[in-house]
Amino acid sequence: MSPIKAELNDQLNIADPDGFYQELIDAQRGLDDDKQQLMNAKLIIILANQIGDRDILSAAIQLAEPK
Amino acid sequence: MLQTYDYPQYDYIQSPEQINGQAVRHPLVIVGGGPVGLTMALDCAQRGIKTILIDNNNTVSVGSRAVCYAKRPLEIWDRLACGERMSNKGVGWSKGKVFFKDDLAYQFDLLPETGHKMPAMINLQQYYLEQYLVDKCYENPLIELRWKHNLISLTQHDEHSDLKVETPDGIFSIEADWLIACDGANSKIRDMVKAEFTGHFFQDRFLIADVVMKADYPAERWFWFDPPFHRNQSVLLHKQSDNLWRIDFQLGWDADPEEEKKTENILPRIKAMLTDPNSKFGKNVEFELEWSSIYQFACRRVDNFRYGRVLFAGDSAHQVSPFGARGANTGVQDADNLAWKLALIIQGDAPIKLIDTYNEERAFAADDNLLNSTRSTDFITPKTKGSRYFRDAILELAEDTQFAKPFVNSGRLSVPTPYKKSSLNSADQADNLFDSDMTPGTNCTDAPIIMNGKDAWLLNQLGEGFRLLCFGDKPTADVSIGNITAKILHIGSDIIDQKGLLTERFDGQKGAVYLIRPDQHVAARWREFDLKKIQQAIKTATCNLG
């Protein structure tokens, strides 16, 4: 495990995870594949800007790599 | 096609050495009469080097090609006494708009700080620029322009090169102590010395069209991502002189260049753009095509700017994508960096290793340009589906939010790269703090001054040799190391800082001494005039430390 990964929050930080997951899925219901992908990309950019911290963003990119 | 420009034909003259069949050794031969080669010739000759420039053609750039020229190259050309002619003829601009589909996503203003002689950016056809440079070369008795001279081979020896050159009168030999290859992105000299030229090729093609039209339209840079009149691709528009407009159409990798370059295929693209309400041209703009070209581009650089006595400058040394106007602009700065170093070496005032700092400083700058231009290209030409979604995400967000606007990358426009870590710098000391970004390795910013009772500019006082820009008390004497003299330029007696901008930009209120290189870059700075430190800094800046 790389040292920067430790900066990411490893614990659940969202109240009502099931509710959030449903909201996310519902928001894309009825969108075609292309629009879903675009929406996901917008979400990543919005959330990344909200986080701001470059080390955390780097750690998140690393963590997100497919297995 | 319509022509707004008459191409000059320069005279081919058979050289005496070709007539005699006797090879002559020249101190400097420059190969290639484009913007960089011609600037190099002017700068070298201005510093006293007898210069031969050979070019395989006898006219200027066919087609307008490079269009945008930034402030720093204009300042360099002003030092060479042709910047004013260029900025007068060119179209000055500072504003840009970026559209995504039907909407304005982002607009910027380069917001040029006032109190500079040269504008932030001008657009000017490359043929005018080259013509002005050629005119200036003809005024200089140290420059010999040899047209229709085609280099066909090169053999390097320890201290010179043998060149075989072909002219309309046959093949003859030239010997050159130093050779500067300004022979462009497809440099033959690079192959002749077996230099590596590596980087990225981009799988995309662009159509550039120069269109003559009378359009009531601002002198701004307009960039469209995925506009209705050219779906899924980008379009760029620039205004040039003489009612000439440059339009770049991204075509994609699948486009057939042979088909696309046919006039009958170009005209409908332009028409679609001009008649689309989104292009804001109004309905019935009449236009004629003056010149067009299809290109694909690469971002790459030569592994070393120096191969023995052969030096690379401009596109032969580094090739960038056109977004950001970083090609010719950075090439001119290569000349700015090289000429004074070569002059000191040829005059015997600096050791030959000074030339290696040309590679050190300009390869550093080239890498910065390549990084910026590669990033712009990745945004404009997404290589994967995923990166295309991110690109479109940013463009959509930029319409509604502030934070997404700076992500929009339609080209980051050329600015000089400071030589922050150059071995020629004497670094600021801890007890030597300045509230000014004129750090060692940075090109001096301009400022308005009064000289001999008249309005003048700081940069016009710098560039002949080393200078000591002195704020506070006037020092008693210039500082010399061997034949190198740093003349004092004292603020308060030699020049007057009536508006206070010069003192502010260099943080000179408490007194300051700046050692300025012949290329107008800061080599070192101190709070007080200290002869020993200045001497040491001049030695450092010329590789004369021993």
Provide a descriptive summary of the structure in words.
The complex is a heterodimer of chains A (about 70) and B (about 550). With about 70 residues, chain A is an all-alpha fold. Chain A contains three helices and no strands. Chain B has about 550 residues and is α+β, with helices and mostly antiparallel strands. Chain B has 13 helices and 28 strands. Chain B starts with 15 loop residues before the first helix and ends in a 5-residue tail after the last helix. Classes of the chains: A mainly alpha (about 70), B alpha+beta (about 550). The interface of A and B includes residues 37, 38 and 45 of A.
User: What fraction strand of chain A?
Assistant: under 5%
Quaternary state of this entry equals heterodimer
Amino-to-carboxy terminus distance of chain A: 14 Å
* Overall shape of chain A: globular
Protein chains sharing the most extensive interface: A-B, 9 and 12 residues
Overall 3D shape of chain B? globular
Total domain modules of chain A: 1
Q: Which range does the strand content of chain B fall in?
A: 25-35%
Uncertain residue segments of chain A: 1-5
CATH first level of the domain at 16-89 and 123-199 and 299-374 in chain B = Alpha Beta
Q: How many H/I helices of chain B?
A: 13
Largest sheet of chain A: none
Q: Compute the CA-based radius of gyration of chain A.
A: 14 Å
How confident is the prediction overall: mean pLDDT of chain B?
94
Summarize the structure.
The complex is a heterodimer of chains A (67) and B (546). Chain A has 67 residues and is mostly helical.
